[in-house]
Amino acid sequence: MKYIIAIIQPDRLEEVMQRLEEKEIHLVTVTNVMGRGRQKGIAEVYRSHREAGTLLKKVKLEIAINDAYLKPALDAIIQGGRTGQVGDGKIFVMNLDECIRIRTGETGGPAIG
Fold first, then answer.
1. Which long-range contacts (CB under 8 A, 24 or more apart) does 78-86 make?
2. What is the C-alpha to C-alpha distance for residues 102 and 27, in angstroms, rounded to an integer?
């Protein structure tokens, strides 16, 4: 079992979700977050003054997945999230030691779904 955390551009969310659906990956948690990477924020003009913004709006996807779905999930996120520009995001993959479905008490891979 793996746990995927992906940070993507907000405008790429629908494309990523569509590609995940095509790979039959339906269980996703999405959170609006703020952060910065190599682009180090952006500069904006506010009331005729130039102000540097240090945090950008991003979207975080969290997916608990069985090993057989790892490559399709990663491919879907990369294909849906890539624009070729700095700031497209990152994907982190971690081992998932345990998953427990609260309703039934199932554990392991079957609990993921």
1. 79/19, 80/12, 80/15, 80/16, 80/17, 80/18, 80/19, 80/20, 81/6, 81/8, 81/9, 81/12, 81/15, 81/16, 83/9, 83/12, 86/37, 86/38, 86/39
2. 15
SS3 assignment, position 102:
coil
Q: For the chain, 113 residues long, give each residue's pLDDT as a single digit of tens.
A: 999 999 999 999 999 999 999 999 999 999 999 887 776 656 555 555 555 567 888 999 999 999 999 999 999 999 999 999 888 999 999 999 999 999 999 999 999 98
For the chain, list the domains and their CATH numbers.
2-112 (3.30.70.120)
